[in-house]
Structures are given as C-alpha cells and as structure tokens.
Design a protein that fits this description.
The chain is α/β, with parallel strands linked by helices. The protein has 2 domains: 3-48 and 214-460, no CATH class; 57-190, D-Maltodextrin-Binding Protein, domain 2 (3-Layer(aba) Sandwich). It has 19 helices and 6 strands. Strands 2-1-3-4 form a 4-stranded mixed sheet, sandwiched between helices. α4 links the parallel β1 and β2. α10 runs antiparallel to α18 (411-440). The longest helix is centred in the middle third of the chain and has 38 residues, at 262-299. It is elongated and about 100 Å long.
Length: 465
C-alpha cells in the first residue's frame, strides 16, 4: 500500500466529523443519551430508595405499623443478657409496647417442647393485626432461630419484620461473645475474614488463582454490554455504508476522486465514525460517574456500587477502561470497513438493503458467538468457546469490553485479543484497498457476495473493471 492511497483522508475525516455533529437526528439522540446517563442514577436512587446508612433508611420505614411485640424466648437468653427488645432503641420503633411471655426454657434438644404457649400466643396475635411475635427457639435443622411472626390478616409491613429480625441477629452476634466471656483477641480471631481460592497447577509446576467462572449477575452485565456494542457497531457501520452508497449513486464520487483516493475516502469516513463513537461513550460514561458522585454526596449512598455486582466498580481501572474503549473502536473500524465495501457494491440506493447482507451476517455471527461465550463463562473461564470468542475478530469487539468491566480472565488474554483486533483492522484495510477502488467506480451488472473473490483477484493483478 502506497502512501498516496491515503491522500486526502484528513479532509474527508474533518468534513465527515463536522457533518455528523451537525446532523439534527444525531444531535438529538446524543443529547437524550447524555441526559439519561446524567439523570439515571439520582432518578433510580429516588425511586428505589437511597440509603444513607443502616437503620430506618435502609428499609425505608417512615412510620411503624407495629403497635405491640410479644417476646417468646424459649431458650432463656433474655435472662442471660440478650436484648430481645433491641429494636426499641431505634426511633421508628421506640413507642412500640413489648410484653415478654413466660416460658420454661428448653436447655436441650432432648427435652419435649411445649407447643401450647406458642399456639395460644399465635391465636392471640391473629386477633391483633398490629401485633407480632418475636419467637426465639432452637431448631434441629436451622439451629438457634429468630422468627418474627405476623397474623394472616396482619397490617404490619414485611419490611418492618425484616428490620427487627436483622437487629436481633446483630444483637445475638454481640451476645454470644459476651456470654462466653471471650476477650477482644478471641473475638477478633472469630471475626477474621477469609477467602477460599481454588488453585490450578500449570505445566511448569506453578499455581494460578484465576477464578474459574463469573456469577450470574456479572453475566447479565456482560450480556448488556454485548448488546450495547452491537448496537453501536450496527449504527455506525450503517451510516458509513449509506454515505458511500449515496456518494456513488449521486455521481459525487467521480468528482471526489479527482483529488481523493478511494481508500482515503472510506478510511476518513470510518475514522470519523470511530471518533464520534468514542466521544459519545466517553462523555456518557463520565456523566454517569459524575451523576453517581452527585447522588453519593446528597444521599451518602454509592448507588452504582450498591446495585452493580460486587467488584464491578473496582474493575473499572484505567488499563481495563482503555482496553475496552480501544476494543470497541477496533470493532467499529472493522465493521465500518466492511460497511464501506457493502456501500461500494451498490449501484443505486434500491439495492442498499441487499448489499448489506455481508455486514448483517458478520454482525450476527459475532454477536451470537459472544453471547454463547458469555453463557459459558458462568461455568468456566477456561473453556474453548470463551477463548474462541475472545480471539475470533468478529466476536471479540462484543465480548472484550464486558470481560474488561467484570474483570474476567487474565490481563494477557485481553491484550492478545486486542492485538488480534488491531492486526485484523490493518489486514482488512490493506486487503480491501484495491477492492474499494474497483467497486466504487463499478456500475456494471449487479454484484453478489460470490463476485467479491473475482474482484479481489483483479485487484491483486492491478486490473480495473
């Protein structure tokens, strides 16, 4: 490929970029997308209930509907110091009346349990729709259990029972250390956090600790990113194909070719599309993060970190973000070059839909391969389908960004995938150069996909039609 093949591409790039950002439909779509990205977090936070900290705000309880709580402690822990009415320390529950029901504690599973007291209490609560029972007992299946029992026709909200239950569990965690007279060191040892990691031995005898799969929540993140990238590639490539086809069908091409080489024309259009896409994504991502920071400042809650699967926000490092963005850009360039080829096959605009079949086929193959690979990632990150989708250029642009965001796979895998994408773009660029030159000026018989091989041979031989 000679340097002269790119003569004039910068002029085409500047002109196309300017026209794209002047297009009214493009601007309207872009502005709407940016508004959505900026407003999404505070709006969702308002509707789903932003939490400042653990307490009434976590369960979004403005006023308690519980009027009375019966405490049935079958284990006698209340006498030993367990605060079974710990919920009264919260302002939303401070006016609730409590009544401890007398009960002979069962100290062993071998003892026969007295069910009459509990049944009588349940019948009483059934007549009091604003009352609940805090039932402390031991089960041979679940062990020490705290049940919050409501009547069938109770007026008490479920979230109030959940909140009281969570407070009792926290209190019991404190109580079990106190009752065993453990010191601070023993308590710290029991509370020590640990993680079990499966190690895999490599051929050289070393071990790696790569996690073997992703969670279902992370799968949906990858799936959503695949869908978004597919829409981006489809939209941008369609714009390139339409622009090339219109230039050719309106005879503008003949005028342009007096000063601009054919490859420079398509290359400039594709690069302009890539720049527009990257700017859109970059600004959208920045607005989403700014929106999250603003929401966190106002509500004290990191909404994205709370709602997204664990570790997602930590995975969005500069290297991962750059690999994801460059991967998307390479995908837009690859499908853009194919779209330019499809556009140059059009003799008149009526043939546009048929000529786009090559682009549609490649996009569907790549997208579906990436989707199936993302499904397999829930079971293993070392299966052949996952590696194939990462290394095959038609699917890598869809899968690579999601893999970077969820932190799946090793860094070398992402870099190799990105390197293959860049290499493919260069190959497609140089191999297609002569075909573009022939097809852009071609106005003979209708071109089919099987004819592309013939044009490629002619291009290699330096012949034109």
């Amino acid at each position: 490929m000679k340097k002269s093949e790119f003569r004039g591409w910068t002029e085409v790039f500047r002109f196309t970029l300017a026209q794209t950002w002047k297009n009214r439909s493009f601007l309207i779509f872009m502005i709407i997308m940016w508004i959505v990205c900026f407003a999404a977090v505070p709006v969702l936070s308002a509707f789903t209930g932003a939490k400042k900290n653990k307490g009434e705000e976590e369960y979004n309880i403005e006023k308690a509907t519980i009027e009375k709580v019966y405490i049935l402690d079958e284990l006698g822990y209340t006498d030993l110091g367990l605060k079974t009415d710990i919920f009264k320390e919260k302002s939303v529950f401070e006016n609730i009346e409590t009544e401890r029901v007398p009960f002979v504690p069962i100290m062993s599973l071998d003892q026969e349990k007295d069910e009459k007291t509990y049944k009588d209490l349940c019948e009483k609560v059934n007549k009091e729709p604003n009352s609940v029972i805090v039932h402390v007992y031991v089960s041979p299946i679940t062990g020490i259990t705290f049940d919050i029992v409501r009547a069938i026709e109770s007026k008490v909200a479920e979230k109030e029972c959940d909140y009281i239950g969570s407070l009792l569990v926290e209190e019991f965690n404190r109580f079990k250390y106190v009752v065993t007279e453990m010191g601070d060191e023993q308590m710290a040892a029991l509370d020590y956090k640990y993680e079990v990691v499966a190690l895999m031995e490599q051929d050289d005898g070393t071990f790696i600790s790569e996690k073997p799969h992703i969670s279902e929540a992370k799968y949906w993140v990858v799936y959503a990113i695949i869908f978004v990238v597919m829409m981006i590639c489809t939209t941008s490539s369609s714009q390139v194909a339409t622009a090339v086809a219109m230039d050719k069908s309106t005879k503008v091409m003949e005028y342009l070719l007096t000063s601009i080489r054919p490859m420079a024309l398509v290359f400039g259009k594709v690069v302009a599309s890539v720049v527009s896409t990257v700017l859109q994504l970059g600004v959208s991502f920045g607005l989403a993060l700014a929106s999250n920071v603003m929401t966190k400042t106002l509500t004290g809650s990191d909404y994205l970190k709370a709602k997204l699967p664990g570790g997602i926000m930590d995975n969005i490092t500069i290297p991962n973000f750059l690999i994801a963005i460059v991967g998307i850009a390479c995908g837009v360039m690859f499908y853009g070059f194919v779209a330019g080829l499809c556009g140059s096959m059009v003799r008149k605009m009526e043939e546009m839909q048929e000529s786009m079949s090559l682009l549609v086929i490649l996009t569907l193959i790549g997208a579906y391969l990436a989707m199936f690979a993302s499904m397999s990632m829930q079971k293993s990150l070392t299966n052949p389908l996952f590696y194939a989708a990462m290394f095959i250029p038609v699917s890598a642009p869809f899968l690579l960004p999601g893999v970077c965001i969820v932190g799946a796979g090793a860094l070398w895998l992402r870099l190799v995938s990105l390197g293959i994408l860049i290499l493919l773009d260069l190959i497609v660029l140089f191999v297609s150069a002569r075909i573009y030159e022939i097809l852009i000026m071609y106005n003979g018989n209708k071109i089919k996909l099987k004819d592309l091989g013939k044009f490629l041979k002619q291009a290699k031989g330096g012949r034109t039609v």
